[in-house]
Each structure stands twice: as C-alpha cells, then as structure tokens.
Amino acid sequence: MTVLLPGATLGVMGGGQLGRMFVHAAQRMGYFTAVLDPDESSPAGSVSHHHVRTDYLDESGLVRLCGHADAITTEFENVPADALARLAERRPVAPGAAAVAIAQDRAQEKAHFTRCGVPCAPHAVIADADDLDRVVDDLLPGILKTARLGYDGKGQARVGTRAELRAAWEGLRRAPCVLEKLLPLAFECSVLVARGRDGAMVHLPVQRNLHRAGILAVTEVHEGCVPAEQARRAVESTRRIAEGLDYVGVLCVEFFGLEDGALVVNEMAPRPHNSGHWSMDAADVSQFELQVRTLAGLPLVQPRQHSPALMLNLLGDLWFARGAEESTPDWGSVLALPGTHLHLYGKLGARPGRKMGHLTVTGTSPQAVRAVALQAAQRLGLQPF
Ligand code: ADP
Ligand code: MG
Description:
Layout: E1 9-13, H1 17-28, E2 32-36, E3 50-52, H2 59-68, E4 71-74, H3 81-88, H4 97-103, H5 106-115, E5 123-126, H6 129-134, E6 142-146, E7 156-159, H7 162-171, E8 177-181, E9 185-195, E10 201-203, E11 207-212, E12 215-221, H8 228-244, E13 249-258, E14 263-269, H9 279-282, H10 287-296, E15 309-315, H11 331-335, E16 340-344, E17 355-362, H12 366-380
Parallel strand pairs: 1-2, 1-4, 2-3
Antiparallel strand pairs: 5-8, 6-7, 6-8, 9-10, 9-11, 9-13, 11-12, 12-15, 13-14, 15-17, 16-17
Helix pairs in contact: 1-10, 3-4
Bound molecules: adenosine-5'-diphosphate and magnesium ion.
Adenosine-5'-diphosphate (ADP) binds next to strand 6, strand 9 and strand 14.
C-alpha cells in the first residue's frame, strides 16, 4: 500500500469520543476526515469534515464513506466485522475484519490468547444449558460475562453458587457466555501497541488502571507504577498477541496482576483505549497519532513519556453531584490547579455512567501529580483513590 500523506482523507467507523480524538489528531496533521455514525450529534461526526449519517451496515453509507475516505479505521469494537470486510473490498481498512471479529467475542479472544501462550483466567464457555452442568467447582465464585457486546461492566454478573450461575445465565437471556473464575487482583494494567503494515511495532508505557463498578475510573502512568517484572511481561505478551493477529493499527490489551505475582490477560480492544488518553498530554506521540500513522502507513517511532501522568475519568454522574438537577461541574476550580488538562467530548446530555470527558494531570514527579489529582478529585466530588 502507498503512504497516505497529509491532504488525504482518513475515515473512521463510529462517532464516539475515540473517533473524535482520532479526528483531532488527523486534522492536526493536515488530513481531512470522514466519520460514519448514525447519530446526528455524535462527538466525532460534529467535528469531522464529512459525516455520513447511516447505520453501520447500510450499503449506501459504506459506499459514501469510501467515496470520501482513502483508508478507514474503527473506533468502537462492535462495528460489525461484516461492514469492515465490505469496506475492505474498496479501501485499505485497519484493523482488519478478522482481528476485530476475534476481539468482539470473549470466547474467541481467550482462545487467541491461549494460542499465543499468554495465560488468561480459568474459564468455561457457556453455549447451552448442558455447559452449565459441566462447569467445574473451581470456577466458582466467578464472573459470568456475555461473550459479545459487553462493555464497562455491562453484561456481567458475579456468581457464588451453581444456583446463582443458573439464575444469572437466565438473566442474561441465555446468551452465549464465558464464566471466569473470580481472581484475587493486586492491580490492573493495560498496554497499547501500534503495529504497521510492515510489522513494525511500538508501544506506550504500561498503564495502571483502577476500575469502579466495572468502569475505568483512574489511570496512572509513571516509572514503577506496575512491578517491573510484570510490566515487562505485559508488554511482551501484548506484542505477541498483536503479532498473532497480524494486526495493523492500535491495540490495547488489559491485564490482571495477581497477589502471587502472576500476570493474567483479561481482554483486548482493537482500537485506542480509555486507559491511553493520558498520552495526549504526557507523551510525545499520542495513541491517536499512532492510529493515524498506522492507517496512513507513516513511520512508527517509539513514543516517549515526558511527564508522569494520572487520568481521571469524568462520568455523567458528576453533572448530578449537586442534586437531582443537571448542573455543569466547576471546571474553573480544577483548571486553577497546575498541570491539569481538561478534555470534554461534546456529548449532549449527561447520564450516570456515561463517559463525558477526562482530566489528565501532569507534573514533575508521580507524588506531585497524585497530590494535584487528589485535589482535583475532591473539588469535583470524585472519590479519592
Ligand atoms: P468490560 O468489557 O466491561 O471492560 P471486563 O472483563 O474488563 O469487562 O471486566 C470489568 C472489570 O471487572 C475488570 O476491569 C475487573 O476489575 C473486574 N473483573 C473482570 N473479570 C474479573 C475476574 N475474573 N476476576 C476479578 N475481577 C474481574
Ligand atoms: Mg475491560
């Protein structure tokens, strides 16, 4: 494939916040952009040169996107793999439909991790009622997760007994599921890699993540935020997982660090990830610029983190922190703190649990960053961490 230089048009399937930050990165480098998303007021559609407003599988929409864009990427993992395959008949598409299809299905995803020799949590695939009977006691207590379409802790249930397992599966409407053993987590972390068509790969430093109620709340990135040996294994495993998919684009892999020092892979996202947002403010190449570079066929250089960073997710709950009426958080009070970088996604209407934006704090030391981030959290009414 030829290199697409600035002046070309880069397309993205999906118009959420990840698409918006991709569009910003592409436009900063002089590219034109096209977004396909059915929502008229989508965060990415509203800042893109072109916005095709159709369903993801609408043939006329896909043709129109190809009419605008010289190459196409994706920003959310539930873009139908079939739509990507159809686009790929007309334009270069990265990541490819096959890799995205694996990431869309927890059972296939775990099979891929295992093929790559990367350990994941003990689990069983639940396709029918007989599979429930075959579940071994060792998997309980566990977490039952729908194989497809789960995100931010949705489509999951914690189960302690066989009776609870059965009830939970009925509650998930007997959807194909994976039952995972509940593991004693010491920490969670993630790694982002970018891989080009030529197989060249670079990665961002290991990110330490704190989830609350299944949703990412805090990401911290600095030397030593994850024990060195587990950090090394996380990077090496992520590279192997990307290579095994012959992946092109940005891939994020999430891991669990266990109390006994083991590192276990959790899941992957075939796109930039919430845990990599800090890179826009604290690294010389962000995850979104990496996505632009892989899609356009530009060289990949190893990103350099130039400041410790801590990111706080800003969920819609914040808009209701001062009562039942929706009110805008006091941004002025956090922007008065040194090294704060506010990102809001332009979403109309806050809802509890909805990702509205994030705040990244940078500074001269991890301690200084943490101190400012704690102050910011307090001023916004976020729980300390
Ligand atoms: P999602 O697709 O919603 O992000 P995950 O599988 O990543 O779903 O689960 C969300 C969170 O739930 C994880 O980040 C972790 O905090 C917790 N969790 C998931 N699986 C396990 C497990 N097997 N053991 C312990 N905690 C888990
Ligand atoms: Mg997750």
